[in-house]
Design brief:
The chain has about 290 residues and is of the alpha+beta class. Helix content is about 40%, strand content about 20%. β3 and β4 form a beta hairpin. α4 packs antiparallel against α7 and α6 runs antiparallel to α7. Strands 1-2-3-4-5-7-6 form a 7-stranded mixed sheet. It has 11 helices and 7 strands. It has a single domain, classed as Aminopeptidase, CATH 3.40.630. It binds coenzyme A. Coenzyme A binds next to β4, α9 and α10. It comes from Hymenochirus boettgeri.
């Protein structure tokens, strides 16, 4: 397969002066230009964080998605790090909602504690202890996983994504500042491209930046004639899942006991930490 050089597909500004001109049915998205492909995107004024002053100055600036450049390395790593680090809490606490077996085990542990100690006070401490252990293991494993990513592809984004055929890395820039990232990694054998490393600075969320980044990957996949885009996420928060659904991805399965580098699978670890890995796919063409 011949890939178009990433430069050819990464120059589109995400702003539009006439949003309505971008809407309407598209029977064959493959033949549309990038500005025609997707619904309207936010203006720079709406993308400014609530806390920032000088709105007038910012309104003059354009938020746009562009290819990664080596000076973006540290900002990209920071956004990636902070985005994944948020999962420590959500996996430890919110994640329990999706683990019925563990809920039962924890309940049995509390009952046993009451039977043995006959103390309500001690029994009330059981949930605190369990949540503490969940937080401990979640933190340990997610930080390990993060370190691993920061040592591999995120250690040299230019080398790993920009110099490889079929791969690319984009940043969302507002007022000269990198506020979001996403990567595409092609697999020539299967003719699929994987969307990876999607993350937006927490000060700039809910403004359509992730969607714009996602569209850039879609655009890249179409122009390079990939048959589908796949991704996997262990995100617990609803935002990531809504994002992929809103981009047209289909949820194609969930792996209940997902493993990430750094997991030891000890009994304690299994008792206090589980990851659900959701797989999504967006079919672009029939093979
Ligand atoms: C997930 C994440 C990338 C979303 O970034 P964002 O810029 O806030 O997302 P957008 O504003 O582009 O929103 C895109 C869609 O996501 C959904 N969404 C975003 N935030 C949401 C929230 N808090 N609750 C529910 N849905 C949400 C919306 O459906 C939205 O589509 P719509 O505008 O058509 O309704 C961001 O929260 C993040 O970086 N999280 C940490 C890292 C992470 O989890 N990455 C993805 C996992 S691989």
């Amino acid at each position: 397969m011949n890939y178009l050089p990433p430069k050819m597909v990464c120059e589109t500004k995400i702003l539009t002066d006439d949003p309505s001109s971008l809407q309407g049915p598209h029977k064959d998205p493959l033949i549309l230009s990038s500005t025609q492909m997707w619904p309207p995107l936010p203006t720079s004024a709406s993308l400014a964080p609530p806390s920032s002053g000088a709105e007038e100055e910012q309104a003059k600036e354009k938020v746009h998605i562009r290819e990664f450049q080596p000076p973006d390395q540290e900002s990209a790593r920071r956004i990636f790090y902070e985005g994944i680090k948020e999962r420590i809490q959500s996996s430890a606490f919110r994640g329990l909602k999706y683990q019925p077996l563990l809920q039962s085990i924890y309940t049995v542990m509390a009952v046993i504690c009451f039977v043995v100690t006959k103390s309500l006070l001690v029994t009330c401490c059981v949930p605190i202890f369990l949540m503490g252990m969940r937080y401990y293991y979640s933190r340990k494993i997610i930080l390990n996983h993060l370190e691993c990513a920061l040592r591999t592809d995120m250690s040299d984004i230019d080398q790993y994504y920009m110099r490889q055929s079929g791969s690319c890395f984009w940043v969302a820039v507002l007022d000269g500042k990198v506020v979001g990232i996403v990567a595409a990694r092609g697999n020539e054998e299967d003719n699929v491209v994987e969307l990876r490393r999607m993350s937006v600075d927490s000060n700039y969320r809910g403004k359509g930046i992730a969607k714009a980044l996602g569209r850039k990957v879609l655009e890249f996949a179409m122009l390079n004639h990939y048959s589908s885009i796949v991704l996997g996420t262990t995100a617990v928060k609803i935002a990531a899942h809504k994002l992929y659904e809103s981009l047209g991805f289909r949820h194609v399965g969930v792996v209940e006991h997902h493993t990430v580098p750094g997991m030891t699978h000890s009994l304690l670890e299994r008792l206090f930490f589980q990851l659900r890995y959701h797989r999504y796919c967006l079919q672009l063409r029939e093979e």
